[in-house]
Amino acid sequence: MKYKYALVEGIRRQAEPGLTGKCQGCGSAMTAKCGERRVWHWAHLGDRQCDRWWEPETPWHRSWKEKFPDEWQEVIHWAEDGEKHIADVKTEHGQVIEIQHSYLKPTERRSREEFYPRLFWVVDGLRRMRDKSSFEKALRLARVIRRKPLTFLVPPNHCALLREWADSRVGVFFDFGSPVEDIIRFGVPVLWRLDPKSPKGWALLAPIPQVSFLDAFLKETPLKGIDFTSAIERACRIPVQTGYRRRQRRPHWSTSSQRYMARKQRAPARRRM
């Protein structure tokens, strides 16, 4: 298992060449891994797993943790029954941010959401090759149902990422990096927030500026979305419709005689000579 911090003579320190320390979770010996190919980290001596929820740390994972103060990173969270886990980020107000890159089984996701009382997910939207393109495909089928803040009603059946997280009971924020299309549409890099109150069979998505997401934890400011403007409407090319009404389907004519009668009724009456 890889960690950013270990206890060296009782003090939390990052990995440096030649250091040895102890795991802050289980107290076992750790050694600093400081190679040229991978990010520097601490690893247990031998094959040991002291937190079954911990996952291998990627550069994307590490970059997100480093957006927060050192004392908020890799913090042990205790439950009332004595169970403990190491949170990726835990703020001084008890909010927990789990930064998720790898696939997570639904049972484990629900266990974490029950364990951490104030949990937020940041999910890597670029883990699989097709996740970003399928997400954009789903957005093209979306409707704008709220202008302030801008909120889309999206069918999740076209996107595996949405299907996997649609029933989450806490806020989920998808990170697709800083694509050019988001800069053009919204003017800033955004995270896509999946609302836990989404109606069954749908996904409520809202673009949230990354700076607003970080300020909500670092500066305790309200989480702000993006207000709808005509410029955004033209850039998104998504029609504005309010409410959850389904589109009415055109009648389906099953026989040629029915189609003929329908055309005859629509045709203007001929003048009699």
Write the layout of secondary structure elements.
Layout: E1 2-3, E2 5-8, E3 11-14, E4 20-22, E5 29-33, E6 41-44, H1 59-65, E7 73-78, E8 84-90, E9 96-100, H2 106-115, E10 119-124, H3 131-140, E11 143-146, E12 151-154, H4 160-165, E13 171-175, H5 180-186, E14 190-194, E15 203-209, H6 210-218, H7 230-236, H8 256-266
Parallel strand pairs: 9-10, 10-13
Antiparallel strand pairs: 1-6, 2-3, 4-5, 5-6, 7-8, 8-9, 11-12, 12-15, 13-14, 14-15
Describe the structure.
A nine-stranded mixed sheet has the order 7-8-9-10-13-14-15-12-11, with helices on both faces. A four-stranded antiparallel sheet has the order 1-6-5-4, with no helix packed on it. It has two domains: about 1-50, no CATH class; about 55-240, no CATH class. It has eight helices and 15 strands. The protein is an alpha+beta fold.
Short structural description:
With 273 residues, the protein is an alpha+beta fold. Helix content is 25%, strand content 26%.
